[in-house]
Amino acid sequence: MSFASDVKAELCERGGGHEKQCLAELLGMYLLGGTIEFDDDGRKSLFFLTENSSIAKKCFTFLKKSFNMTDGVREEECTEGHRNEYRVAVTGKENIRAILKGLGLGEQDGTVKCDFQNMPKLLENQNNLKAFIRGVFLMCGRISDPAGGYHLEFGLPSRPMAEFLARCIGRYTREPRLIKKKQQWVLYMKDGTRIADLLTLMEAHVSVMKYENERVVREVRGSVNRRVNCEVSNLNKTMVAARKQVESIEVIRERMGLENLPENLREIAGLRLEQPEASLQELGEMLKPVLGRSGVNHRLQKLCEIAEGLRSN
């Protein structure tokens, strides 16, 4: 299973808590996966649609728990091409009316209305609002495996709903970014800390621990790689500089002779020829008295300047 599947499996196993929290989670599920349809005889049915059987089961359980339905609600499985779809169907005018009223939704000509400009009374309680975000995530949320990168998103059917969900999330952390992709409005996060905060908000506690563990491993690995790359880069620079110094000393030896150099330059020139791979610090420690890196570098630069002058002449 993918990390996203593990997160949703954990959220499906979580109980609804207080009755109002169950209703809030159902509201999130309905806004992303709910629909009202009429059959050929004009009979009305309310459906919750999902491709995840565990989500359908949770929805079914919450409906029976919140509205004490003994009949008129059922789970169904249908196959469309290579894809399985699960739905929870509710029949009976009274059942449907009770559900819409409990969720704070209005209905006009068979179309369910939700005011996204104002916060529904059901969601004014913080715990209910968290449950609502959890319900929305179950229906349309996606999250990448933290081992490969940090990305969480919600695919939403309209801009008003996307902006409404962003405001809901913004009550707990910085609002996610909003972009349009084809026919969807997408809210997304790419910050690992904010994604972990949102998982905590939805009470996916086991997934949060897995996520944080992967984050630590990934960041430590990245830190080690950066340090290794830096050391390799420094080593390459040292080798290039040493090769240039050796070439300059060879020019001096051929054109004027090392014996004609001042004693301090003659000494460092001999050491560099004997130790072409030594660092500046290592060369300095071989001198008597010991010389620091900057002193060694100064003498070697002087040798390079002399060689450059000889080349010019």
Verbal overview:
- The protein is α+β, with helices and mostly antiparallel strands and 313 residues long.
- The protein has two domains: 3-203, Homing endonucleases (Endonuclease I-creI, Roll), CATH 3.10.28; 235-312, no CATH class.
- It has helices spanning 3-13, 19-33, 53-67, 93-103, 126-140, 159-170, 192-201, 205-255, 263-274, 280-286, 293-312; strands spanning 34-38, 44-50, 73-80, 83-91, 106-108, 111-113, 141-143, 152-156, 177-181, 184-189.
- Strand 5 (106-108) and strand 6 (111-113) form a beta hairpin.
- The radius of gyration is 35 Å and the shape is rod-shaped.
Entry keywords:
10 strands; 2 domains; 313 residues; rod-shaped; 11 helices; alpha+beta; Endonuclease I-creI; four-stranded antiparallel beta sheet
Brief description of this entry?
With 313 residues, this protein is of the alpha+beta class. The chain is built from eleven helices and ten strands. It starts with a helix and ends with a helix.
The first-to-last residue Cα distance is: 73 Å
Strand order of the largest sheet: 1-2-4-3
Number of helices: 11
* Low-confidence runs: none
SSE topology sketch:
Layout (H helix, E strand, L loop, with lengths): L2 H11 L5 H15 E5 L5 E7 L2 H15 L5 E8 L2 E9 L1 H11 L2 E3 L2 E3 L12 H15 E3 L8 E5 L2 H12 L6 E5 L2 E6 L2 H10 L3 H51 L7 H12 L5 H7 L6 H20 L1
